[in-house]
C-alpha cells in the first residue's frame, strides 16, 4: 500500500484556504487557543510519519516539505529512523532559536532540495554540511518560485522541477 504525506506550505493567516481548501487543523487549533507557531507543527509531522510508517508495513517513508515545513522535514529526517528520504522545497533558517545548518550536519539520507533561483544560494549554504553523495539540489533555469508551488502547472519552469524531483524519487 502506498501512502503519501503533504506538508502544507506556509500560509499567511493560518487557518485560511489555498486553492479552495481550508486548513482545518489550524482552524481548530485557533478555536481551541492552541499554539500555531511554526515549530508547533513538528509534533504533528512526527505523528503523521509514525502513522504512515505503521500503515506502510513499518517501512521507512519519504517526506516532503515546503517552506518552513521543509526545514522541519530536514530536522526530523536527521533524527528519525522512520524517514527514508526527504524532499525539501525552499527550506531555510526559519527558526531564530536554532541554527538549522548545524542541526542537519552529517545528514546521510537521500535529500532533494530546491527553491527559486533567488533562494538557491541560501539553500546551498543550508545543506553544505550534509552528505554530498545523497544530495540532489535542483536550481531552476527560470526565476522559479518559493516552496512546492514550483510544481504547479501555473509556475514558469514547473517541468524542470518535476523532472528533477521525479528523477530523485526514481533512484530511491
TrEMBL record:
The keyword RNA-binding does not apply. It comes from the Bacteria. InterPro entries: AB_hydrolase_fold (IPR029058), Dienelactn_hydro (IPR002925). SUPFAM superfamilies: alpha/beta-Hydrolases. One of its GO terms (molecular function) is hydrolase activity. Transmembrane segments: none annotated. Residues 25-137 form the Dienelactone hydrolase domain. Keywords: Hydrolase. This is Dienelactone hydrolase family protein. The lineage of its organism: Bacteria, Pseudomonadati, Bacteroidota, Flavobacteriia, Flavobacteriales.
Amino acid at each position: 500500500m502506498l501512502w503519501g504525506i503533504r506538508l502544507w506550505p506556509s500560509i499567511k493567516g493560518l487557518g485560511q484556504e489555498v486553492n479552495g481548501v481550508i486548513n482545518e487543523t489550524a482552524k481548530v487549533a485557533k478555536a481551541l487557543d492552541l499554539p500555531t507557531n511554526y515549530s508547533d507543527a513538528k509534533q504533528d509531522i512526527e505523528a503523521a510519519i509514525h502513522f504512515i510508517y505503521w500503515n506502510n508495513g513499518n517501512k521507512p517513508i519519504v517526506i516532503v516539505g515546503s517552506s518552513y515545513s521543509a526545514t522541519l522535514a530536514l530536522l526530523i529526517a536527521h533524527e528519525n529512523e522512520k524517514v527514508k528520504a526527504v524532499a525539501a522545497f525552499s527550506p531555510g533558517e526559519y527558526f531564530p532559536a536554532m541554527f538549522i545548518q548545524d542541526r542537519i550536519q552529517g545528514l546521510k539520507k537521500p535529500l532533494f532540495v530546491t527553491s527559486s533561483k533567488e533562494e538557491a544560494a541560501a539553500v546551498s549554504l543550508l545543506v553544505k554540511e550534509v552528505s554530498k553523495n545523497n544530495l540532489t539540489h535542483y536550481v531552476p533555469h527560470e526565476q522559479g518560485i518559493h516552496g512546492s508551488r514550483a510544481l504547479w502547472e501555473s509556475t514558469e519552469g514547473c517541468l524542470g522541477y518535476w523532472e528533477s524531483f521525479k528523477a530523485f524519487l526514481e533512484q530511491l
